Amino acid sequence: MVKTPTVGQEVERPRVVAVVPTYNERENLPALFEQLSGLGVEGMRILVVDDNSPDGTGQLADQLADRNPGAIEVIHRPGKMGLGQAYVHGFGRALELGAEAVVQMDADMSHPPEHVPVMLDKLRDYDVVVGSRYVAGGGGDPAWSFTRRLISRLGSAGIRLVLGLKVKDATSGFKAFRSGALEAIGIARGAELSGFGFQAEVAYRCQQAGMQVTEHPFVFLERREGKSKMSLGIMAEAFARLTLLRLRGYRRD
Ligand SMILES: Nc1nc2c(ncn2[C@@H]2O[C@H](COP(=O)(O)OP(=O)(O)O)[C@@H](O)[C@H]2O)c(=O)[nH]1
Ligand SMILES: [Mg+2]
Questions:
Q1: pTM of the entire structure?
Q2: Looking at the CA of 28, which ligand is closest?
Q3: Is 218 touching ligand 1 by the criterion CB < 6 Å?
């Protein structure tokens, strides 16, 4: 931890910020916090971005923050504004805090925390490390049905085609960034897509900005607690919007 003196107080500058958006993740947050803080990553702060979860996740996060000063910080937003916007908000704060690296992960334990140290190590050689189900050693939840697998594969393949994306796991929301990469894509100015489309948009913007991107294999685990917020409507909208994003990208080239 680097201590940065400010007027009248000392603010600790975290080296790594793990941004975790939450909406009704009461059952998952304590375990995630415990696992992440048990990794021994030096100077890591967990930044919870809660959208006023009706189940009280925000208050629970506050309690964790009170008990563990400096290890966890909570952004409270007034209502549900979508996962993409929550990440934009959290990334902006992480850059403001002066972190060297930023980790992006969901609160529902789908992204196994034990991969975080390796992903951070790989940032020595790359600007962005994408946790990937579709490189050797990675995979979908073993409990997924054939249909679920097919949808995931086709979705990713379709998005890669639409965007001309080199990353194989186009919709992965498990990533590590050098802060410079988030600055290079101007993330603080916002994102066009939400939901899983946001993940593809960020991967595309990193590629367009000439960032060095690698994929790190992991096995995605479906949430055991709480409910998923994915829907067919979200999927269709994401495809339409990503197509527009690509067309605009062409025009700029
Ligand atoms: N702050 C915030 N977090 C959200 C919102 N929607 C989803 N999340 C969180 O984003 C992560 C991924 O959501 P999830 O429903 O698991 O998506 P799925 O894995 O694609 O089914 C979880 O940590 C959710 O709690 C939202 O509107 N606001
Ligand atoms: Mg999930």
A1: 0.91
A2: 1
A3: no
